[in-house]
Amino acid sequence: MSTWVQDVEDISRETKTPGLTGRVHIIGLGNAGTFIAHSLASRQSPPPITLLMHQASFYHAFRRKKRSLAVNYNGLDDNRTGFDVEVLHDKVWHRIPSKDEQLEANEDPDVLESAEDVPEEEGHIECLIVCCKSYMTEKVIRGVRHRLSPDSTILFIQNGLGIIEKLNKEIFPDEKSRPNYMQGVLSHGLKKQDSYKVGHVNVGSLILSPVVTGQTPLIEAEKDTHWAPTTKYLLRLLTLTPSLVATADTPAGILQYQLERLAVGCVLGSLGAIHDCKNRELLHNFPVSRTMRLLLLEISSVICALPELRGIPGIEDRFSPERLRRLILNVASNRPEDTSSIRNDLHYQRNTEIDFLNGWIVKRGEELGMKCVLNYMIQQLVLSRMYIINHREASAVPIDFDNVILSGDKSKDD
Ligand SMILES: NC(=O)c1ccc[n+]([C@@H]2O[C@H](COP(=O)([O-])OP(=O)(O)OC[C@H]3O[C@@H](n4cnc5c(N)ncnc54)[C@H](OP(=O)(O)O)[C@@H]3O)[C@@H](O)[C@H]2O)c1
């Protein structure tokens, strides 16, 4: 295996870009982020890795884990250390010293007191891997926006589509100052076991590709291989990291995998959340089967009409309603006990990725002159469930009415 140092030197020489450090920043340390950071740290020659934490409490928890990340393979924990950490506080990133002896003496110190601000000249991020949910991404990127440049590469490991278009509109409207993007489709099965510990429950892969924005047929983009040095480096680093089982694909190739996952999420994810049930309960269920077929008619029509996919042979077959239906039934029968991440998010009163799943179909359908009313209804049903859950919780907060001072009621003050 080539070492990351060798890769950095080779790419610097090939692209005439001296000064690459090869450091990888990772943000969003849930299942996907923990697995990727752990995999990079497991290489024979790990690159320098910085974990970006958006709250000091995350670092306290990480310290309690002796600054290690764990992945449980076949019942055995594999722990990895050696990560650098930066914590966001008052919109400023603070670097936590890796040998925090001062902190060791104190059980629950204010970590930020001994932390130093990341100096501006050292704050530049070359490679950023974003592993948070789609709806958090805009906020996450705003927090590091000043540390990114057109030389940086951001890799998004997320389900759902439409995130990059949103970032371009809201954060990077100027094409010239925009960082480079990559996307990854992660199919490893991961389950949270504890903070900073995930169980690897299914072997999968990580498919990677640089992103080309715009709506030209993506098949044209395959001729363009002029990727930024940081994009080349990140691609090489990840594809040479054995536990990720990562491969590189073309922008047109990865979009097709993303669309298959999107179709699964739009149907299994949303219906599992609306019915509050596991995958197996959606199988052999006639009304669910009717709903599924109707939803897939809209999903398939939008996908087959996408200008990005024009010119790619076999699109109508790959994305026909019947093929998508079989794909979804396969996922549900292979993982009958799984519960959708939308259902989980609702359970923990978090936002959901629905706007980047059925919401994306509705939005792209509108652009193509198609009204996807069923997907719109599914999106609204998930949003209304979230509204009901949140309001139920809010109204359950006990209020001491005897001590409430109503506006205009001065008698309590007197
Ligand atoms: N799990 C899988 O097996 C799997 C497989 C393939 C793809 N995916 C996709 O990968 C993406 C991530 O999934 P996941 O399961 O890893 O999600 P997750 O476990 O919910 O992890 C997201 C992490 O991001 C953190 N976060 C939230 N806001 C942040 C901020 N402002 N700055 C930094 N970090 C922030 C969250 O912290 P809090 O706890 O504070 O919210 C959480 O630790 C999703 O799009 C998912 O669909 C997951």
Automatic annotation (TrEMBL):
Residue intervals of the Ketopantoate reductase N-terminal domain: 24-209
Keywords attached to this entry: NADP, Oxidoreductase
Protein name, per record: 2-dehydropantoate 2-reductase
Ketopantoate reductase C-terminal domain: residues covered: 254-382
Provenance organism: Penicillium cataractarum
Family label: Belongs to the ketopantoate reductase family.
SUPFAM superfamilies xref list: 6-phosphogluconate dehydrogenase C-terminal domain-like, NAD(P)-binding Rossmann-fold domains
UniProt GO cellular component terms: mitochondrion
Entry keyword annotation includes NADP: yes
Gene Ontology molecular function: 2-dehydropantoate 2-reductase activity; NADP binding
